[in-house]
Design goal:
This protein is an alpha/beta fold. It has a single domain, classed as von Willebrand factor, type A domain (Rossmann fold), CATH 3.40.50.410. It has 10 helices and 10 strands. The chain has helices at residues 13-17, 22-37, 66-72, 108-125, 149-160, 175-180, 197-208, 222-226, 248-272, 287-298; strands at residues 52-54, 76-78, 87-93, 129-135, 139-146, 186-191, 213-220, 233-236, 243-246, 275-281. The strands form 3 sheets. Strands 5-4-3-6-7-10 form a 6-stranded mixed beta sheet, sandwiched between helices. A two-stranded antiparallel sheet has the order 1-2. Strand 6 (186-191), helix 7 (197-208) and strand 7 form a beta-alpha-beta unit. Helix 2 (22-37) crosses helix 4 and helix 4 packs antiparallel against helix 5 (149-160). The chain is globular and about 70 Å long.
């Protein structure tokens, strides 16, 4: 990359996914996003991306970051973990259905991992505490929130080894995580939400009822919405392995109407629970999801 304008290309999922280092991928996605903010109505959010605070008269001089002073001739103090304003939990659905992809799109799980990594990168570089929960039919990985850059590297390293989703999605396994949250924070769900709607909403309600700010990102492949098939096709449930043969052109309109109805009902019910609902297609730029994160983050000030 020879100039900063190159960073915005990493908002494209396929371009970003070609980078094997998840830490580098997250950084480039975020830097591309922050660069784009300067040209968008959301540019005010960029001021939040800092792990320093201006020095105030009377504060201890030992906390001044002298390297920053040498560069910009202004006094800033480093924020430490105990001063963090937020604890964030990023909950990733890693069930078998998240492996799906069509055409040249990346899989739903790959999209979820890149998006989650970007959130972790932003949060911890703001000195907020962030952690991850990866689940399917059980909790696969759990990192409680911390505001440590070493911890960030550890989480990203572990996520980079998450190649394929396994098992049947069961939101009920998140009960223990919800019970462990003692202070208001931010909850980010990343899932295809192709499961029992009532079970999903019960869990969103459980987390939201604790006065957490909650965001639900539904990640879907375009073919799952528009049924982009042109000949008789055998559809296989990636979790149960159940098979159904159908002529897509016969059922396309009824299918599309049913999908839109399901998505609409999720959005309405989430709104009732004070949870933001966002539909993201795997071909869409990452900035759509990141802007919605910053909007919700503003409510926690």
């Amino acid at each position: 990359m020879k100039n900063s304008g190159d960073y915005t290309k990493f908002l494209n999922p396929k371009t970003a996914n070609a980078i094997s280092s998840l830490e580098l991928r997250a950084r480039l996605i975020v830097e591309g996003f922050m660069l784009g903010l300067h040209k968008s109505p959301y540019r005010g959010f960029s001021a939040e991306f800092s792990d320093h605070m201006p020095y105030m008269p009377g504060e201890s001089l030992k906390n001044i970051d002298w390297k920053v002073y040498a560069k910009i001739d202004k006094f800033f103090v480093k924020r430490f973990e105990e001063e963090t304003n937020l604890k964030a939990y990023i909950i990733i659905d890693a069930s078998s259905s998240m492996n799906y992809k069509s055409g040249n799109n990346i899989s739903k799980l790959d999209y979820a991992i890149s998006l989650a990594s970007s959130f972790l990168y932003i949060l911890i570089n703001q000195s907020d505490a962030a952690g991850i929960v990866v689940f399917s039919d059980e909790i696969k990985k759990y990192y409680p929130p911390k505001a440590s850059k070493f911890y960030l590297k550890e989480m990203l390293s572990d996520l980079s080894n998450l190649k394929l989703g396994e098992g049947i999605c069961n939101f009920d396994v998140l009960n223990k995580i919800a019970a462990s949250i003692k202070r208001r924070g931010l909850i980010i769900f990343i899932s295809d939400f192709l499961d029992d709607k009532e079970q999903i909403l019960r869990k969103i309600k459980l987390f939201s009822s604790q006065k957490n700010e909650t965001i639900a990102f539904q990640i879907l492949d375009p073919s799952e919405i528009y049924l982009n098939y042109h000949s008789e096709t055998i559809f296989v449930d990636m979790e149960t392995k159940e098979k159904v043969s159908a002529h897509p052109y016969h059922i396309k309109k009824a299918y599309y109407d049913a999908v839109l109805s399901y998505i609409s009902s999720l959005r309405i019910e989430c709104s009732k629970l004070r949870a933001d609902f966002n539909l993201i297609e795997t071909g869409q730029s990452f900035d759509k999801a990141l802007v919605n994160y910053f909007k919700k983050r503003e409510l926690l000030k």
